[in-house]
Amino acid sequence: MKSILSTLLLMAYLNMFARVTIGNVVFDQVNSFSIASSVKNISDTAVVVLAKEYKKLAGKPAIEYIKAGDAVKIECGYENDLHTEFTGFVKYGITSEFPLLIECDELYPLRQTDFTLSYEKVSLKQLLNDIAGSYKIECPDTNLGKLVIRHASTVEILNDLKDKWGLFTTIQNNVLSVGWPFDYKPSFTKLHTYYIEGNTKNARYLRYRFIEDYNAKVNIRITGTDGRNKTITAYSNERNKEDSRTVASIDARNITEADALLRAKSLLKQNVYEGFEGYLVGYCVPRVKPGDSVEIVNKRQPTRNGRYLVEAVNLLFSDTGGIDREVYISYKIA
């Protein structure tokens, strides 16, 4: 705890810096940027606002140096200890000279593709290799059955996997990962610790909930052995099914009713627990990413200490307001 407090005191006296590289041009005067990332989004997104000094650059309007598809790298940190927080591409061309507001994501190359494909039977991995072969593919061993695709981009196909199969895609460091949300191995995620009265800037958006606060259900839609569509449901309160709230509803292929019920109960357990929900606001460090886990420690109420999976992170930089990292937690791990 002492080292955490020492770090916070030190950060109060450190200068913060940000650097944005677009194409071959480096911008080291940045008004603000925001980076949004989530295990449920295909791509991180970023919005950058450049300083007014860049209205003109080397005698030309800065917008002449920026075009859709340009590679983008965003770095920030304290003093000269800068770390890369985002890599991607300019999403749209810049249409106004000032302010220089630039929207970015990681999907520009995947929007430019156009596929027409037909399969009598195809695995998820084969499909991903066919539509995104330049990436390293990570996915479960899942059969998608018969599939027909007509003039769709890679992004459109990935969104279709989310809508019809409940499969979510993330892209990081040229690795395209497709799977069910939070289908992860804890040993491969990073663990960070937040102290409510230490390295947490703001914890008022966290709410502590008890099991009895919930009346929830999870629906798994499957195709039965008779060829008919069926919905398998798990409830947190069997005595009050009619008033239950749906917290997850997904389609599943090629699984039995028993397996569907097990998956529904697993998803229900993720959504119904005693512990915190919501988000906290931290500093630039620790550098938490979606899919990591965080230990929330409250010295005044130690019985509420717990470990949670991180669903989403928003990183906010302002040359006047500092660096905030909003950490949105999902289900409780321990």
In short:
15% of the residues lie in helices and 46% in strands. It has 334 residues and is mainly beta.
Low-confidence stretches: none
Query: Can you tell me the number of structural domains?
Result: 3
- The coarse silhouette is flat
Helix content: 10-25%
Features:
Phage tail protein beta-alpha-beta fold; mainly beta; 3 domains; 334 residues; flat
Describe the structure.
The chain has 334 residues and is mainly beta. It folds into three domains: 2-108, no CATH class; 112-179, Phage tail protein beta-alpha-beta fold; 211-273. It is 15% helix and 46% strand. Strands 1, 2, 3, 4, 7, 8, 9, 15, 16, 17, 21, 22, 23 and 24 form a 14-stranded mixed sheet that branches. Strand 23 (306-318) and strand 24 (322-332) form a beta hairpin. The longest helix has 15 residues, at 257-271. The relative contact order is 0.15. The mean pLDDT is 87.
What is this structure's SSE topology?
Elements: H1 2-11, E1 16-22, E2 25-27, E3 30-38, E4 45-50, E5 56-57, E6 60-61, E7 71-78, E8 81-90, E9 101-105, H2 108-111, E10 115-123, H3 124-131, E11 136-138, E12 143-152, H4 154-165, E13 168-172, E14 175-179, E15 191-195, E16 200-202, E17 206-209, E18 216-223, E19 229-235, E20 245-251, H5 257-271, E21 275-282, E22 293-297, E23 306-318, E24 322-332
Parallel strand pairs: 11-14, 15-22, 18-20
Antiparallel strand pairs: 1-2, 1-7, 3-4, 3-23, 4-9, 5-6, 7-8, 8-9, 10-12, 13-14, 16-21, 17-21, 18-19, 21-24, 22-23, 23-24
